[in-house]
Design goal:
The complex is a heterodimer. By secondary structure, chain A is an alpha/beta fold. Chain A has four domains: about 90 residues, Glutaredoxin (3-Layer(aba) Sandwich); about 210 residues, Rossmann fold (3-Layer(aba) Sandwich), CATH 3.40.50; about 80 residues, Ubiquitin-like (UB roll), CATH 3.10.20.600; about 90 residues, de novo design (two linked rop proteins) (Up-down Bundle). Chain A has 21 helices and 15 strands. In chain A, α10 links the parallel β6 and β7. Chain A is globular. Chain B is α+β, with helices and mostly antiparallel strands. In chain B, strands 2-1-3-4 form a four-stranded mixed β-sheet, covered by helices on one side. The longest helix of chain B has 15 residues. The chains are: A alpha/beta, B alpha+beta. At the A-B interface, α1, β9, β15 and α16 of A face α2, α4, α5 and β4 of B.
Chain lengths: ~525, ~150
C-alpha cells in the first residue's frame, strides 16, 4: 500500500460532471506528473463532500481545505501554490461568508461515515473501512432471529417518513414460512427538496448493499429489489457497479460463504411518479402496473410483491443496519435520544451560509443544525421560516427554532421528520407563494385513485391561487384548512393525508401574511 | 423491430416498465408509438389498454412524438423560490412553445417535472440525461443556443 502526503478528494456528481470534471481530473493528473508529485499526492474520485459548492469542488486533506468552482485554468496555481508550497489558494476557497464555520462533524456519523472519504466505486476501499464484516457475522455467527432482535433492541425506526420501528417490521415477515420472500428498497425519493438517499447511494453504495443483505438474511428473503428513480442516473450506475463487484467477491449469489444462503439483488427503475414512494404503490409499480396504492391490511410484510411477504425499507434505514450488527444495539443507542435512537441525515438548503449535507444525532435542535452545520444564515439575511420534510412537511417560524428534531418531539407539532429536508427561507420569501407551490405539487402528483385526494388537491390549488391573486376572503383561509383536514381523514394513502401539514402550519405560523392578502 | 429489446427481457408483466423505457430511449423522437404498444402487448400477452394505463400514469413516458432534446424543468417548491418561473418564461420565449409542446424544428420539447433531487443547485433543469443547475436567464440562453448549434 502506498502512502501519500496529501489527498485531493473530488466530488463526482451531476453538477461537477456538467462542469467537466472528467477532463479536469485528467488535466490535474498531468500537471501533478509534470511536477513529479504523482507519488506524493493522491487524487480520489468520491461522492458528496458534504457541502454544495458551484461547479467542481475539491477537499484537500490533511489540510481540510475546501475549494469550489475550480476551473481548468486554475490547476497550475493550485499545484504551485497549495500542493507544492502549502498555501491554500484563497480566491477559490469555498465560502459563502457565514458567521460561523460549519463543523462537518465526523464524530457522530453512522450513515455518512465513509461518504466523501472513500472511492464509492471501489469495493476494496469499503472493505478497508471494515465493510462487509457485519454481513459475514450475520451469515456465519448469528441466527436470523438474533439479527431481528438486535435491530429491535437498537430502536432503529424507519427513515422514510412514517418512523415505523424497523425491527418490528422485520419481525412480522421473519416467522412466515413460505417459498419466496422479498426485500424491497425504497429509493424512489420524490419528496421535493430531499436527496439524502441519492447522496447515500452515490457516496457509499456498498453500505446500503450490506444493509440489504443483512435484512434479507434476517427475514429469510432470497431476492431483493432496489426500486430507484429513473432520474438518479449516477446512483443507478454506482449501485450497478457495486452489485457486480459483490458477485465477483462472492458476497452475493449462491451459497454465500458456504452458509447455504442464496441472495440476489436487482435494480428496478421507476418512471416518474411521486406516489410510488408509498410502499404499496411501489409494489404495484414493480409488478408492472400503474403505481396506485393498495388497501392495507394485508400489509406488505405479510402479502406484498406477487402476494409474497415483502419487507419494504428506506435507503437510509438499511444503511444504518451494518453498524448495528457490527457494533451492537447498545453502541447505536448511544446516539440520539432514548425514545428515538441513532442519527438522521439532513439536507439543509436555502438561505444558509453553507447549504449541504449533514448527519446529526436525533434530538438535535433546529437551531443547532442551522448554526453549527450550515454556518448560520447567509450574510445579510434574517431567518423567517423553515420548511421541514419537503412538501409533506411543516413550515416553522422562529419561535420553533428550538424544537428538537426527532420523531417524538416533532409529532407534538403535528410534523414528521420525514425526509430530512430543511429549507431555510429569509424574510423576503412569501409564505403564500410557498404554500401555493406546495399545493401545486400535490395537485400534480395525486394518483387519482380516491376522490378526497384527486378532488381535494385541485380544490386546495384553486383556493390558494385565489388567495394569492388577492381575490380570497378570510373564510377561504378556514375553508382551505377544512378541506385539508377532511382529506387527512378520508384519503386512501399518505399523499392525500399530507397537505394538511403544510396548510395548517403555514396558516398557524404566518396567518398575518395570508390575512394581508385577503379582501376585507 | 423491437426484437432486440424483447430478447433482453422475459415476457412477464413486471418487465413492462423497463421495456417501455428502452423502446422510448431507442426511438429518436422519444415516444411510444401505437405500433410499439401493439408489439409490447403481443410480446407480454397483456392488453394494450393496460399498457396505455401505465404509459399515461408515469410522467417519463409520452404517446406523442417529442423533440430531440426533452427539457424537464423542475417546478417543485425549492426551485420555485429560487426563480424557476423566470427560467420557464425565458425558455418559453426562446423556444416559442408552451408547456408540453415541441418546437417546429423538432429539436426541443418543454416539460415540467417534479423534484429532480439536485436542490442544492436550484433552479435545475434536466435535458435528456444531463442536469444543468444554478440556472440564470443568461445560462439558459447559453445552454439552448449551444444545443441548437450542436445539431448543425
Amino acid at each position: 500500500m502506498k502512502y501519500y502526503r496529501m489527498h485531493v478528494l473530488i466530488g463526482i456528481n451531476e453538477t461537477s460532471k456538467q462542469a467537466g470534471v472528467e477532463a479536469f481530473i485528467e488535466a490535474l493528473k498531468k500537471e501533478l506528473e509534470a511536477n513529479g508529485l504523482q507519488d506524493e499526492i493522491n487524487i480520489l474520485e468520491t461522492g458528496p463532500l458534504g457541502f454544495f459548492g458551484k461547479g467542481i469542488c475539491l477537499t484537500v486533506y490533511p489540510d481540510n481545505v475546501n475549494y469550489e468552482d475550480v476551473k481548468l485554468e486554475d490547476i497550475g496555481e493550485l499545484v504551485q501554490e497549495h500542493f507544492l508550497k502549502g498555501r491554500p489558494v484563497r480566491r477559490l476557497l469555498f465560502s459563502a461568508g457565514g458567521k460561523f464555520t460549519p463543523k462537518f462533524n465526523y464524530e457522530s456519523r453512522i450513515v455518512l461515515r465513509n461518504s466523501g472519504i472513500i472511492d464509492p466505486e471501489n469495493i476494496d476501499e469499503y472493505l478497508g473501512t471494515g465493510g462487509y464484516e457485519a454481513w459475514e457475522q450475520a451469515l456465519l455467527n448469528k441466527k436470523p432471529a438474533e439479527l431481528v432482535d438486535e435491530v429491535k433492541k437498537s430502536g432503529l425506526r424507519g427513515r422514510g417518513g412514517a418512523g415505523f420501528p424497523t425491527g418490528l417490521k422485520w419481525s412480522f415477515t421473519a416467522p412466515i414460512e413460505c417459498e419466496q420472500k422479498y426485500v424491497v428498497v425504497n429509493a424512489d425519493e420524490g419528496e421535493p427538496g430531499t436527496f439524502k438517499d441519492r447522496l447515500i447511494m452515490e457516496g457509499d453504495p456498498h453500505q446500503l448493499l450490506e444493509g440489504i443483505m443483512i435484512c434479507a438474511r434476517a427475514v429469510g428473503a432470497t431476492k431483493a429489489y432496489i426500486y430507484i428513480r429513473g432520474e438518479y442516473k449516477l446512483s443507478i450506475q454506482r449501485l450497478r457497479k457495486a452489485i457486480q463487484q459483490c458477485y465477483e467477491y462472492g458476497l452475493l449469489g449462491k451459497n454465500i460463504f458456504g452458509s447455504g444462503f442464496d441472495l440476489d439483488i436487482e435494480i428496478k427503475i421507476g418512471a416518474g411518479a411521486y406516489v410510488c414512494g408509498e410502499e404499496t404503490a411501489l409494489i404495484e409499480s414493480l409488478e408492472g402496473n400503474r403505481g396506485i396504492p393498495r388497501w392495507k391490511p394485508p400489509f406488505p410484510g405479510v402479502e406484498g410483491l406477487w402476494k409474497c411477504p415483502t419487507v419494504v425499507n428506506n435507503v437510509e434505514t438499511l444503511a444504518n443496519v451494518p453498524f448495528i450488527i457490527k457494533n451492537g444495539a447498545d453502541a447505536f443507542r448511544k446516539y440520539g435520544t432514548p425514545e428515538c435512537s441513532g442519527t438522521k441525515v439532513y439536507t439543509i438548503l436555502g438561505d444558509v451560509a453553507y447549504p449541504g449535507l449533514c448527519e446529526a444525532d436525533m434530538g438535535t435542535t433546529l437551531r443547532t443544525i442551522i448554526n453549527d452545520y450550515a454556518g448560520g444564515m447567509k450574510k445579510g439575511f434574517r431567518f423567517k421560516a423553515a420548511l421541514i420534510g419537503g412538501a409533506a412537511g411543516v413550515i416553522l417560524n422562529d419561535s420553533l427554532l428550538d424544537v428538537k428534531m426527532d420523531l417524538n418531539s416533532l409529532n407534538q407539532y403535528a410534523a414528521v421528520l420525514g425526509s430530512g429536508a430543511i429549507l431555510v427561507m429569509n424574510e423576503n420569501t412569501s409564505m403564500v407563494d410557498m404554500l401555493w407551490s406546495i399545493l401545486r405539487f400535490f395537485r400534480h402528483e395525486s394518483c387519482g385513485k380516491c376522490s378526497p385526494c384527486h378532488n381535494g388537491t385541485q380544490m386546495l390549488y384553486d383556493l390558494i391561487s385565489k388567495i394569492r391573486n388577492g381575490q380570497g376572503t378570510e373564510d377561504d383561509l378556514d375553508l382551505l384548512l377544512l378541506i385539508a383536514e377532511n382529506m387527512q381523514q378520508t384519503s386512501f394513502c399518505a399523499l392525500g393525508q399530507s397537505p394538511v401539514m403544510p396548510v395548517r402550519s403555514a396558516l398557524e405560523n404566518f396567518r398575518d401574511e395570508f390575512l394581508a392578502l385577503v379582501k376585507k | 423491430m423491437y426484437q432486440e429489446i424483447f430478447s433482453k427481457y422475459a415476457p412477464t408483466k413486471d418487465n413492462l416498465i423497463y421495456i417501455l423505457h428502452e423502446i422510448q430511449d431507442s426511438e429518436p423522437r422519444h415516444y411510444l408509438s401505437e405500433e410499439a404498444v401493439q408489439a409490447v402487448s403481443e410480446y407480454l400477452n397483456i392488453p394494450a389498454n393496460h399498457i396505455y394505463g401505465v404509459i399515461t400514469f408515469y410522467s417519463m413516458y409520452s404517446t406523442k412524438p417529442r423533440g430531440k432534446y426533452i427539457i424537464r424543468l423542475c417546478e417543485s417548491p425549492h426551485c420555485y423560490i429560487r426563480g424557476s418561473e423566470n427560467i420557464l418564461r425565458k425558455m418559453k420565449n426562446m423556444l416559442g412553445v408552451g408547456i408540453g409542446e415541441t418546437t417546429k424544428d423538432g429539436l426541443f420539447t418543454l416539460e415540467l417535472c417534479a423534484c429532480l433531487g439536485v436542490c442544492g443547485n436550484a433552479p435545475v433543469v434536466m435535458i435528456n440525461d444531463d442536469i444543468y443547475g444554478d440556472l440564470t436567464e443568461d445560462k439558459v440562453e447559453e445552454i439552448l443556443t449551444h444545443l441548437r448549434e450542436v445539431k448543425q
